[in-house]
Amino acid sequence: MADENTQAPQTAPAPETSRRPYEGVPANVVRSVPNPASARLSWTDGERTIDYVSTAAHLDVRDDSGRLEGKMFSLSYVAVDAEGQPNATRPVTFAYNGGPGSASVPINFGGIGPRRVETDGTNHLAASARVADNPHTLLKDSDLVFLDALGTGWSVVADDCDPATVFSVDGDADAFARAIMDWLEKNHRWSSPIYLYGESYGTFRNAVLMRLLGERSVKLTGVVMLSAIWDWVQTLPGEDLYYLGMMPTYAAAAQFFGRTGEGVDPDEWFDRAMDFADETLAPALLRGDRLGAERECDVARELSQFVGLPVDFLARHHLRVELTEFRRELLRDEGRVCGRLDMRFCSDEPSPMQASLDWLGGEDAADDAVEANWTNAFRAFCADELGYQGPSVYLGQNWERVGHKWIWQHEVPGTGEKVGAPNVTGDVALALRRNPTMKLAIIGGRYDAATTFWNVRHDLSCQFLSPALKERVTWLRYGCGHMAYVDEPTLAAMDRDIHDFYQKA
Asked: Which spans does this entry mark as compositional bias, Polar residues (predicted)?
């Protein structure tokens, strides 16, 4: 565990808000935020020890005129030497979750931060779940800055700022770019290798941000995309890309619960399902009712052998099964519903009166099992170890006020048109072409039904990158769900693989 000392030493880095580059601009357009708080702590895995300074503070998000748009909450972990000094040449990684409308606690206290809530397979955690030094923390390879998007966590939008300015694809990326540059400036870290680490919508943000930062002369060393989604079209009702992406994930879940794939290695089974989606299901869906009833039944029989649902059910649905239906149908005979973020997690099926598909879509055992524990651990760390007096309410999820109001219009550079369901893979490709020294890691899980692996592989393949740029991309796939770090064997494997990624020239 970390040191008992909760006070920052005299030699610790100055708090992130110690400089005010816009002294003449009124600062009373945002409700007050707590003062920064820091502490020097220590991490160990039993063999290695890292001293670090953790700081909870807000970063100013200002437009080019100096007008304040909001204050973004940050929780940083910076390794220091015996004298308490940071290493300015050490990598620094800016990490966040997605939503849109999610704060960064899961990827921090669930995944790569120096403290982590210990998980228990696919079991729901008790309130007493242990919090300990994380043997797989990314702090071993990089200093870490976890950022909460405006409107989430303890981040606040300025009172006179139209939320539409920041609750949008472009506005959100712009706000993060400005917060990142604010942190780099105030902490004297412009000489550090700079990384982005986003999860879920955080990868959508990454796609725009990696291009935007490059346009603002912030050269990135690497970007990590965990549970990536880049093409919003795949989320729209009736889109065949949705059904194609779901199919291998359904097959993985069906095998996990013993409904299909007996005796086959799970990775091999998933590869077979990926191939089936490419070679059989895609042409069938493309033909629609031109496929014909006989051929549709043939494909339904093959599909049934993968996903474990009855042939007549699949034929009646014309080979297109919505996630909510699959979650409800796969384990119906056991009276259980499987998860969305990680299909291996289960709960008892709801009451018959709870028939709303929208409501069921938001109920997720994979989230219920761990989310509250992460937030409790975060609150205890900030209050007890940093002495940070945060507001009583921490908006870990703020979908109602942020996600529901999100403005999806975005123009992929070179297309000449803003669209409401953008494919930001074009932003990723453009950023790689402009900076061919940048490296990209794409991480996915077999049981992730929120951001399916088939889709992100398809999306990048359609950018026709050169062989040299493809060499800059590292693909990592594990036996996990959306929040890969929940699965401790996956977390250990990610630790090794991401270490190698950071060491890659």
From this structure: 1-10
Could you give the CA distance from residue 114 to residue 215 in angstroms, rounded to a whole number?
Answer: 32
The CA angle 188-190-191, to the nearest 5 degrees, is: 105
Query: What residue spans define the domains of the chain?
Result: 37-233+374-388+423-503, 246-368
Between CA 379 and CA 392 the distance in angstroms is: 9
What pLDDT, in 10s, does the model give residues 60-99?
999 999 999 999 999 999 999 999 999 999 999 999 999 9
Residue 248 has pLDDT above 80, yes or no: yes
CA distance 333 to 412: 46
Q: Which residues neighbour 96 within 8 Å (Cβ) at sequence distance 6 or greater?
A: 104, 107, 146, 147, 148, 149, 176, 197, 198, 199, 202, 205
pLDDT tens string 217-246: 999 999 999 999 999 999 888 899 999 999
> Which tens digits make up the pLDDT trace of 148-169?
999 999 999 998 888 888 999 9
Q: Which residue, chain included where needed, has tokens 């109920």?
A: 363
Query: Distance between CA atoms of 369 and 319, rounded to whole angstroms?
Result: 32
386 versus 367: the higher-pLDDT residue is 386
- Is pLDDT at 12 greater than 50 in this prediction? no
Contact 138, 498 (CB under 8 A): yes
Structure tokens at 462: 């359609």
Exposed / middle / buried, residue 484 (Cβ in 10 Å: 0-12, 13-18, 19+): buried
Calpha distance 321→302 (Å, rounded): 15
Amino acid letter, residue 191: S
pLDDT bucket at 292, cuts 50 / 70 / 90:
very high
37-233+374-388+423-503 is a CATH 3.40.50.12780 domain: no
Q: Looking at 150-291, list the stretches that DSSP marks H as alpha helix, in order from N- to C-terminal side.
A: 169-186, 201-215, 240-256, 266-276, 282-287
Q: Is 121 exposed, middle or buried (0-12, 13-18, 19+ CB in 10 A)?
A: exposed
| 8-state DSSP, 140 | G
* One-letter amino acid for residue 76 of the chain: S
pTM of this prediction? 0.91
Q: How far is CA 119 from CA 123, 446, 447, in A?
A: 8, 19, 17
